[in-house]
């Protein structure tokens, strides 16, 4: 909210509503510089499950580290540093 009690408009890189469950792409949709929803451009290094808001289905999704919130059964993949 701003100082007048009005909701603030979204800014570029803020999360936007929506989901894209595509292997190898981050699941989170974000606003671009034109405030249009687009895919997060970061390379995912985590996978997990996301439960739909309707409560009728689980989705397997891929995410980068800042977008794992809201996921369950989160696992990291693709590390090559010996851990």
Q: What is this structure, in a nutshell?
A:
The protein has about 80 residues and is an all-beta fold. Helix content is about 0%, strand content about 30%.
Overview of this structure, please?
The protein has strands spanning 29-31, 37-39, 46-51, 58-63, 72-76. The chain has 83 residues and is mainly beta. The strands form two sheets. The protein has a three-stranded antiparallel beta sheet, with no helix packed on it. It is globular, with a radius of gyration of 15 Å.
Sheet/helix structural class: mainly beta
* Global shape: globular
What percent strand? 25-35%
Strand order across the largest sheet: 4-3-5
Distance between the termini: 43 Å
- Mean pLDDT, all residues: 85
Pattern of helices and strands: EEEEE
- Uncertain ranges: none
Task: Give the C-alpha Rg.
Answer: 15 Å
Bin the helical content: under 10%
Kindly state the number of beta strands: 5
Number of DSSP helical runs: 0
Main beta sheet = 3 strands, antiparallel
Protein traits:
83 residues; mainly beta; two-stranded antiparallel ribbon; 5 strands
């Amino acid at each position: 909210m701003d100082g007048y009690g009005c909701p603030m408009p979204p800014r570029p890189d803020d999360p936007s509503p929506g989901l894209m469950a595509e292997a190898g792409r981050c699941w989170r949709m974000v606003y671009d510089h034109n405030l249009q929803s687009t895919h997060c451009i970061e390379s995912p290094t985590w996978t997990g499950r996301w439960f739909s808001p309707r409560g009728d289905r689980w989705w397997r999704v891929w995410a980068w580290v800042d977008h794992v919130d809201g996921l369950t059964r989160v696992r990291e993949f693709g590390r090559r540093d010996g851990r």
